[in-house]
Amino acid sequence: MKLTRPLAALALLVATALPALAADAVYPPGLRLGMVPLVGLNTAKTFPGFENEDGSVKVLVTELPPAAYGEVVSAFTANPAGNNGVKPDKIETPAGLAYFTTESGKAGTTPVKRYSMIVPGTGFSGYVAVQVPENASKIYTDDAVRQMFATATTRKEVSADEQIGLMPFKITDLAGFKDVRTLVPGSSLILADGNESSGYESKPFIILGLIGATPQQADDRARFAQEAALQIPGVRESRVTMSEPIRINGQPGFETRIDGVSGKDKTPVTVVQWIRFGGGTSLRIIASAPRDQWSDAFTRFRAVRDGIQPKG
After folding, report:
1. pLDDT confidence band for 187 (50 / 70 / 90)
2. What's the angle, vertex CA 129, arms to CA 165 and CA 169, rounded to 5?
3. Model confidence over 65-74: pLDDT tens digits?
4. CA 194, CA 30: separation in Å to the nearest integer?
5. What pTM was computed for the model?
6. How far is CA 24 from the centre of its chain?
């Protein structure tokens, strides 16, 4: 089937415009990885990345742990022929040497092309996943996607205001925490005295996020809070030292404290978990500090907790 004149013009733009637009990289809110989106793609409304007008073409942009890039490189180096007919490829980008794959699949019953790329970053690995349905593949071709990948770039920092502004609530008191890092855009972030390079465990930090499916019956909340606290990632040899219902900004909540060790140096830490129960979602706060810094840190943790306000 022949392309209509407008579609042919769009395809030509996609194929030729990108090299001249290298300075116009767009960063999804809260992320350090950006790129020049293909013609016809705009910032997505429901996920970090880009999409076309009807949402059928998707470009997911996200951040992975820093070790992810090295693991992928090692796997591709060990098996350059790839698996199941999916051969890895590489491309130079402003962010560094990127590795990507191309494969065919289905989204439901719709045939699609899927592209995945990983790039190095400072303190993170950048990851991009593209999905193009068959009926758009004459515009968003393999070459066009490759050219978009070639524009991938990173920025050093995302401002605290930008990251906090994505959250579904206001944070009115940072309590002196200088390092602000998004964990899941618009859903969770960490405030810390340490950073990704030096590690977080040896200094106080606090994680704010939303969770769903929390019990609404008061009798079930104690069990839920204790089980959640004992499953906090990175804390080992955990022991609950206190768990009791409280009110947090006028709403029912639960405070649970545990002692344990954290980090490769097995730093003794005390961790407090606050859950402020709500309707559809609940606020979960996890705050950790080395035991010898606990007293001052706990005062700061409460200041952050009590300064969380609804938006609007």
Report:
1. confident
2. 15
3. 899 999 999 9
4. 19
5. 0.74
6. 23
